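Model it.
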Amino acid sequence: MTHVSVLPGEVLTLLDPQPGEVWVDCTLGAGGHARMIAAKVGPTGRVIGLDQDAGMIAAALPSLAGWPITPVHANFDQVSAALKGVGITEVDGLLADLGFCSDQLEDAGRGLSFQQDGPLDMRMDATAGESVAEMLARINEYDLANLIYEYGEERQSRRIARKIVETRKTAPIRTTGQLADLVRSCVPRDKKSRIDPATRTFQALRIAVNDELGSLDRLLSQLPRLLNVGGRAGIISFHSLEDRRVKQAFQDRDLWEAVTKKPVQAGDDETVTNPRARSAKLRVARRRSHGQPL
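Modeled.
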């Protein structure tokens, strides 16, 4: 695996896992964060690692051997049910890294990136839901334009949606390369920016087929019930749509005490060795002793 976990020092310092505690890593991925937490909670503690991608769990298993880590195949919005399934109702800490594992992005077969041409899928769980190709074949132009604008914050969304609908009349859009070239033909490249013109549209479509924002909302609503008093929750987001939701959830002073007053970001040393960390934002909050769970 090539994935490098973001903000490793900040995660351990701010979440402060202690020996004997029970933690859940809601996004196991390659297991980097889970192993760091497991090293802190020690043999008397426990870490439950969730991932909706069964392939990622299988790939991570060898690196988890010998650690007090229990992998569970589940999306993070199913965290309460997943924990009950292994006999746990409350935890001392929770971490969710909402970014994608580098190994997933580099797998052309997933269609998550336009760096390599591949099938236009983008689903994190290939056994559930529809692919982006299937969605683009049936969605109407108005809804598609709104989706690209809302989830991708793309100003040229109507032009892109119109082009997609026109193109599919003659041939289905089935590969990442097809879609990326189509978007680039609609969106002028900003010479001052390193961002590919197709980036925002790909983000929007990926968010839509995986219901990423809905899943995050469902996770955030479960946190107060899951965390013991004094328990810490850390969420690492990668774009403003996610960070805004986390910020709003942690602003409930009846439930949460902010550990981070503003999102923590990677320093220059980390971004040089791990460019993926540039857009990572970590917010941490501690469960208060008063207030009613949601």
